[in-house]
Give the backbone structure.
Amino acid sequence: MKKILIVDDEKSVRESIGLILSNTYEPLYAESGEEAIKIYQDERPYLTLLDIIMPNTDGLQVLERLKDIDRSAIVIMVTAVTVLSTAIEAMKKGAYDYIQKPFNADELRLKVDKAVAAKDMVNEIRFLRTEISRKYDFENIVGNSKAIQDVFSKIKQIADSKTTVLITGESGTGKELIAKSIHYHSSRNNKPLIAINCAAIPDTLIESELFGHEKGAFTDASARRAGQFELANEGTLFLDEIGDLSLATQAKILRVLQEKEFLRVGGTKTIKVDVRLIAATNKDLEKATREGKFREDLFYRINVIPIYLPPLRERKDDIHLLIDHFINKKSPNRKRKFSQEAMDIMLNYHWPGNIRELENVIERVVTLTPDNLIKIDDLPQNITNETKAGLMKDDILSGRLSLDEAISSFEKEIILTALEKTNYVQTQAANLLGISRRILKYKMDSLNIPTEREKRE
Ligand SMILES: Nc1ncnc2c1ncn2[C@@H]1O[C@H](COP(=O)(O)OP(=O)(O)OP(=O)(O)O)[C@@H](O)[C@H]1O
Ligand SMILES: [Mg+2]
């Protein structure tokens, strides 16, 4: 049961309040301000009911002390009608509510329940907020490579400033994760982080989405609506895929960045905002600038702090760590690992979808493999095939394998696949491979590929 501290110099008042609340709460009693402060420190009640007029310390002073001890203390002042003005002063000093003597039981219960619910909500929001920001802690952004370590130190340096950041990198390299991490490492982290995917909003709507609109600004505008720039005030606005914005919208964004104010669509009143902008794109903006697809002035305005996330294939050191991280995340209670051969494949695959692709592959493999040891055969075929060819190339170039041997083994594998696909009907397999049946037979002989009959024997 939640503890409620009842502070009043009159015993009868304390007891009657206690009686009213004791069904749902655990009452604690203090008969003076000093005692209240002591009990507050020791017991940390969920809520305090505080009489205003008491001998020695008066309620207002006690309120201030409680607020010093705990800024989020919820205090309901209990007051006689005659000192209503003091109750109002108490509200200004941070009391949550007040109740007048004499009060009836229902009124008291209602006010207390409401205050408790408000505090529950504040606690929950605080909890969720730490939960969310924990997700963007460096601990949960995996990487030991120099590239990612440089990104971490850059984030630490710039998180607290208001400078615009431009994050670039191929799809799936972690741009959004890094953008959010910057916000949660900044002093704006208790203010909104608003993310917009510019590529997902049609050009006709983007202006009203970003800047809001007044009622009647266009046919569908039946009510006034605040835009994302307004909602992000004092916080961070993350413009994802900024390279996809039209030149007209780019011009408007540039203006907000320079003037720090804008008009809603159809509006006449300028709105001032304090917003930190983080932009991301997988396009080459410099090239787009040269081609006239991206405004040069906007590019320079957002490219103040560039952060480049290299593709996963260029930070092989991180693949191992990421694999462990995702395996742990998907099946935290089991000791699963990749066989050496399977790990080699994973390390050498070129990961066009980067970390997102790696995460999906792990999820799939972990779900579909019953065994704790994940072997080559458990990996998706596109990854094994492609990587085997790549590994073979390395073997040839480093002299471990001759070109002839490599070609033969490659040929053999393809012919076997074709035969399996066609149930060993050689004419069909030859067709599939674009060669004559005679040549297929010749190759099967020289590569020691058995026919179906030979296989059975
Ligand atoms: N260093 C990392 N450590 C752990 N997880 C990561 C890391 N980088 C990215 N991820 C995860 O990979 C996935 C893809 O990341 P994210 O969405 O940030 O990529 P992106 O660059 O924005 O991709 P796109 O260009 O396709 O939008 C997310 O689930 C993210 O949590
Ligand atoms: Mg993204």
About this structure: Residues 143-309 form a domain with the Rossmann fold fold (CATH 3.40.50.300). The longest strand covers residues 75-80. The chain has 20 helices and 16 strands. The CA atoms of residues 142 and 325 lie 7 Å apart.
